[in-house]
Amino acid sequence: PEPPDVVAPEAEDIPELREEAKGCRRCPLWRDATQTVFGEGPENADVIFVGEQPGDQEDLAGKPFVGPAGKVFDSILDDAAIDRRKVYVTNAVKHFKFEPRGKRRIHSKPNAGEIQACRWWLDKELDLVKPNLVVALGATAAQSLLGKAVPITKMRGDVIEREDGLRVFVTIHPSFILRIRDHEDKAAERERFLQDMRKVRKLM
Ligand code: URA
After folding, report:
1. Residue 138: what pLDDT?
2. Looking at this predicted complex, what is its ipTM?
3. Which residues line ligand 1 (CB under 6 A)?
4. Which domain CATH number covers 181?
5. Which domain of life does the UniProt lineage start with (predicted)?
C-alpha cells in the first residue's frame, strides 16, 4: 500500500485550502503573477462574492478586492448595509493575468481554460463555506459558477438555481462603474449596483 504521506490530505478548512493554493500550478498564470490571491472572509459566511481575478494591487497585497474596484465595492456594500467583514470574497481566477506595458501591468481577461482550471479551488471554497447565496460579479464569475457564458446585462438581478441547489445572483463587476467617465452615467450605474446589493442583502 501507498504510504499515507504520498496523497495530499483533503483541506479541512479555508486556511488549509489557502495554504494548498499557494503552490497551484493548474494553469500557467502562476508564472508571471506575484502570488496566489485566495478568498478571504469567515468560513461561516452566508454569502460568497465572486469577482474575476486579482488586479495589480491585489496581486501585490495577496488579498482580493483591495485596489480601485475593491474601493468601489466596499463603498457600495457599506451603503447597502452589508458588512464586508461578515462576507466571503473571492475570485474565479486566483492569479493576476496581465500584459506588461512599459512599467505598468495591464489587466488581461482570463480565458475559458484558465477559468475551468481554477474552478477546482472555487468549488472547494463553496464546499467549505456552504453559503446560502453566491454573487457572481460579472461575466467571468458567472461563467465559472454556472459552467457556461451568460448574458450579464440580460440576467442582471436574477437568481439562478444550480442543479446542486446553490443560488447564484448575477450582476455586473464593480470595475464597470469605475470605467464610466460621464458623471451622471456613473452615478446611475452605481445606483443600479447599489439596488442589486440591497436585493442581495434580502436574499442572504
Ligand atoms: N477585480 C476582481 O475581479 N477581483 C479583485 O480581487 C480585484 C479586482
Report:
1. 98
2. 0.94
3. 51-55, 58, 64-65, 67, 69-70, 91, 175
4. 3.40.470.10
5. Bacteria
